[in-house]
C-alpha cells in the first residue's frame, strides 16, 4: 500500500476502454478511465450542467456527455465540443503493486 494516498481499485478490474466512477470521501466524484492501458482520472461531473460522465460514451480519448452530447478530452480535460466550454479537472494517478491510486 501507498501510505497517504487514496486507493481507487485494482488495476486489473478495469479493462481497456472501460471507465468507472468513484466518490472519495470529501471530494467531488471522479472518473477513472483505462485508456489503452494508461489510467486517466478526471472529474466525473460535466462542467455544462449536471450529468455524470460515467454514464456517457468513450470514443478514443474523447468522452461524450450523456445529457447534451458535449465532449471533453480525457487527457487534458479540455472541452472539445459544445455545449461544453469549461475544462474538466484532471488528476494524477499512480499504479503500485497492481493498485490504482489518486496520487
Ligand atoms: Fe453535459 Fe450538458 S450536462 S453537455
How many strands in all? 11
Mean pLDDT: 95
- In the predicted model, the low-confidence regions spanning at least 5 consecutive residues are none
Percent strand equals 35-45%
CATH C-level: Mainly Beta
Cα separation of the termini: 12 Å
Element-level helix/strand string: EEEEEEEEEEE
Number of helices: 0
Give a short account of the largest sheet: 4 strands, antiparallel
Using the CA coordinates, give the radius of gyration. 13 Å
Write a structural description.
The chain is mainly β and 103 residues long. It is 0% helix and 42% strand. It has a single domain (6-102), classed as Rieske Iron-sulfur Protein, CATH 2.102.10.10. Strands 2-3-4-9 form a four-stranded antiparallel sheet, with no helix packed on it. Strands 5-6-7-8 form a four-stranded antiparallel sheet, with no helix packed on it. Strands 1-11-10 form a three-stranded antiparallel sheet, with no helix packed on it. The protein starts with 5 loop residues before the first strand and ends with a strand. FE2/S2 (inorganic) cluster is lined by residues 46, 48-49, 51, 65, 67-68, 70, 83-84.
Amino acid at each position: 500500500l501507498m501510505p497517504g494516498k487514496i486507493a481507487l481499485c485494482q488495476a486489473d478490474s478495469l479493462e481497456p476502454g472501460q471507465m468507472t466512477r468513484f466518490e472519495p470521501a470529501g471530494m467531488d466524484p471522479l472518473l477513472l478511465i483505462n485508456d489503452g492501458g494508461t489510467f486517466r482520472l478526471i472529474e466525473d461531473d460535466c462542467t455544462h450542467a449536471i450529468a455524470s460522465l460515467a454514464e456517457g460514451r468513450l470514443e478514443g480519448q474523447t468522452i461524450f456527455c450523456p445529457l447534451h452530447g458535449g465532449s471533453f478530452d480525457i487527457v487534458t480535460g479540455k472541452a472539445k465540443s459544445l455545449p461544453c466550454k469549461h475544462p474538466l479537472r484532471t488528476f494524477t494517478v499512480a499504479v503500485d503493486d497492481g493498485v490504482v491510486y489518486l496520487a
